Amino acid sequence: MAVERAFRDPGLLPLLLILLLLALPGPGRAQVTEQGSLRGFILGPEPNTAYDNWISHTVEGLAVIGGYNDYIPNPLDPQTNGFGNFLYIPESQTDSARALWHDIFTAFFAGDLEGAQGLIDTAGINYDVVELTDSAAGRTFWLLRERLDSLFIDPGWYGGPDDDVIGSFDRGWGLFVYNPEATHPEVVVQCPHPNDDFISVPLAVELFLEADLGALEIHGTGREVYWSGGSYRNSRSLCDPSRNPNLPFQFFAESFVSNARAEGLSDLSIQIHSYDSAEHHGHASVQISCGQEDGYPNRPSRDLSSAGLDWVNFTPTFPVPAGYAVLGQAAVRISDYYQVWHAPGFVHLASGTVISTDVDLPGYSGSNQMMTASEGRNPLVSFDSYLHAEFDELPDAIAAAGYNEYELYSNGPLPPTQTNWEAMLRYYEASIDALTAYFDDIADNPDTTAPTVPELQADYASDRFVDLSWTASDDPNFAGYEIRMTPAVIPAPPPVYWSIEDDTTLVGARTLSTRSYGLHPGQVHMVSIRAFDFAGNVSPFSPPVTVVALDTTLPELQHLGIVSRYPLHAWPPYLRFLVRSREPLREVLVRLHPPTGPEETASFLPLDPWEPDEWIPFGGHFPATAQENWEGQVARYWLEVEEESLEPHLVTIPSFDGYPLTL
């Protein structure tokens, strides 16, 4: 496969030789122990770690000079081609690389830091396992971080040394942080695009620390650094982990989900992005989705119950008071702060404000991390396993106050550190606080209230099943519906239950109908429904409805005769029958008897898959016999049905008098 880089450096070959030497196994290294601020290490400054301002060292590159993606304004941190190196993992090595990194992450999550470092050293990977004690956060974090290569120098924008960045990465595979004592160990925060989504990293760090979440992963390379041959497009990027699954970023996502589920946790992957306001003008500051392909958004993005326990409803009506982020900034109403993908829309309960569903950035439909988080999960479940959030890099209220991106982010040193992000973080403070409150509410407020009782009605009954519908049950932690069918006879046999194991759509609070099997033919049944939630609360059964199952003495096969024919004035005509039966049918034979002349036989095949007791259309052409024997005549017909059994046999049913065939 042809690949391209965002630079053509004549000094690249010596550098590659150095990289090859670095990749050779060397003597084992002990894990690193440090004390300092995680926030300072990632965003700068932090003098007590091996290096700091991690985000300033990420591998940079521009495939298209002039801008394919939008980055932080050049004077603050220009993208420098050749600053750092991305090491591509060929597809031929994917399986071995995935197995190695899964072993590393398994040891890492289990607290076997020496074991994880040993695997890394044996593989010759220039990463350190770091135990970082953060006294400000009151936590000890475990890090997997790449060592800096000081041969790489980013000269910055102004030419002098003041804004230079010394050191970048040889692999660019990212930073991985684990919080072993997290309040919410089931949640991982992901930043796949640290360079062009340039506010995503400070936002992710803030959310991770504020909410005390389980893990944080930040990719180490901009997505324009390395791509498949041809002109650059985001879809061709080989260093974008949302598109290329053969990267440690994706391996970490897989390992985290697997580890959380093995521990019985309901995992959630939160992916943080940011967007260029000029290209998406008029949209709210925060665009929320559960992934482009998820048409059933649930908590935390949307609570379908009346409780409103979701991200939006934990936010005040005015998330950003006037002048809170920057001087002159107008107050921001919640309808201008959030948009949530997808229909149905919903309301911010405290204010009665309708929240728009007009999201134009619901996320890449093929995102590797989205697919990993969603694998094996029913999208109707009340809690989603993937959350995609896009934050405006220049919110409309700040732009309206007269600020551009440079002015918003230039309040600090070069390259940027924590102080440069302060105004932006104040603007999005309410969103971080609301999502934190959402998680804390789950942990701190046990659910002891049962779901409301649905109102049930029966719509149709056969001898074996009943079609049911009901009103929705109300519960923020809704887990499913259960239907009970009891024959009204003495002595009554055990009731039959129909629930989420039988119909997986019953896990959804908005599922309002099902076809429930288990009736006893010819008997009267009392049918009820109840709801249950994830906290173990169960509603009472609804008042029963009476359902009479069809009697099995009904004919084994029925037909509605010829329901259509075409063409009307051509020969031979095409005929269509409707037939229903208790057993699968593979063919219907029609014997036609004209007033004069010989009997004719035609074969008709099913047009739809067979369903028990459903009317199935059969179609075929009338026998291509002498037209003069039939035209204008009235014929009687019989249906002969060949059943699908080991020894096919024929069942003959006479035609109904009401269905003569006029040709």
Distance between the termini: 65 Å
What's the shape? elongated
Estimate nothing, just give the exact number of structural domains: 3
Label the structural class.
alpha+beta
Please compute the radius of gyration using only Cα atoms. Answer: 33 Å
Question: What topology, given as strand order, has the largest sheet?
Answer: 2-3-4-7-9-8-11-16-12-13
Walk me through this protein's architecture:
This protein is α+β, with helices and mostly antiparallel strands. The chain folds into three domains: 338 residues, no CATH class; 95 residues, Immunoglobulins (Immunoglobulin-like, Sandwich); 98 residues, Immunoglobulin-like (Sandwich), CATH 2.60.40. 17% of the residues lie in helices and 28% in strands. The protein is built from twelve helices and 31 strands. A ten-stranded mixed β-sheet has the order 2-3-4-7-9-8-11-16-12-13, with helices on both faces. Strands 24, 25, 26, 27, 28, 29, 30 and 31 form an eight-stranded antiparallel β-sheet that branches. Strands 20-19-22-23 form a four-stranded antiparallel β-sheet, with no helix packed on it. The longest helix is centred in the N-terminal third of the chain and has 16 residues. The two termini are 65 Å apart. The C terminus is likely disordered.
